[in-house]
Amino acid sequence: MKTWFITGASRGFGLRIARLALERGDNVVATARRAEAVTDALGANANLLALPLDVADETQARAAATAAVARFGQIDVLLNNAGFGLLGAVEEASANEVDRVYRTNVFGLLNVTRAILPHMRSRRSGRILNISSIGGYRGAAGFGVYSSTKFAVEGLSEALHAELAPLGIHVTVVEPGYFRTDFLDASSLSVSPNGIADYNGTAGAVRTRAVDLNHGQPGDPDRLARVLVDFAEASDPPVRLPLGSDTVAVIEAKHASDAAILREWRAVSISTDFPHDTATAV
């Protein structure tokens, strides 16, 4: 039996994974801004601890971690799932919009991770699953600010993977593509109201496509939940886990594009090194 600590557990991926973990007999600490939203969604269960948690509040994150250990004695899997999107050109995003999405997607993830790591380190055991995105591997018009938060999650996850592996703690960044959840609804996606006509053909077009794509995404969120609950048992988990055929295609295309850049610009790229000093050679 494992004990999960899940942020953003009242809907989307977090809710599905919490429900499946409970069905499999695991303990689940399910957190959301309103604990009532979790209990309304999951019902009563002796293996469930629903806690209020605004991940942007470091004090509340530490209190939730303490309550989780007090109830179940351990935390085996941390699923950093809480987050939301911001749609609009980079220039269109206001400072307040940027600050808000960073406070949840980046600083919130850091708050929760730092709150739980002392417990995992003391046991020399644990798994951390950080939910990133297809946008964490490739930035795209209309999602620049959001993608930048997920790029941050990718970098943090890679560093945590290197820092924590010697301590018996596995870290994986999960990269879902477009899944049929409520991510493109107003409840999960903030749309900048500051439209600039010059971006109508790029970020503006993405606004329209996002509406058309909503609830027609190719990914099955129930399958993703099953994959991640099974993945928590993997003996040697990778540092990143792409999920969805669209994410796989994006990664392959970016690798090909970057390889082409290196081929074309290799001489320029390596020209910035100090020249080999042959004057002192005997």
Q: Which structural traits does this protein have?
A:
globular; two-stranded parallel ribbon
What does this entry look like structurally?
The protein is α/β, with parallel strands linked by helices and 282 residues long. It has eight helices and nine strands. Strand 6, helix 5 (144-164) and strand 7 (169-176) form a beta-alpha-beta unit. Helix 3 runs parallel beside helix 4 (95-123). The radius of gyration is 21 Å and the shape is globular.
Topology overview:
Blueprint: E1 3-6, H1 12-23, E2 27-32, H2 35-42, E3 48-52, H3 58-72, E4 77-80, E5 85-87, H4 95-123, E6 126-131, H5 144-164, E7 169-176, E8 189-191, H6 203-213, H7 221-231, E9 240-243, H8 245-270
Parallel strand pairs: 1-2, 1-4, 2-3, 4-6, 5-8, 6-7, 7-9
Helix pairs in contact: 1-7, 3-4, 4-5
